[in-house]
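Q: What would this chain look like folded?
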Amino acid sequence: MGVVFLRAGNTADAKQEFTAALQLNPDSVDARLNLGAALIQEKRFTEAMWEVLEALRSNPKSVPAIGS
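A: My prediction, written as structure tokens:
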């Protein structure tokens, strides 16, 4: 659902969905990267960078995180 909100430009609801996903699975690379993408849309680049770094920390071999 978060991706749908993100693609529609609704970053507030997207962030809420990704945050909820991270509460269920704190090591979810997809949720972290998508949260980072929502933060980038809001021009919150430093926070987005931290989400990408956290995704890499939780799964260093993650190809999607390495490509970000």
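Residues 18 and 31 are 5 Å apart (CA to CA).
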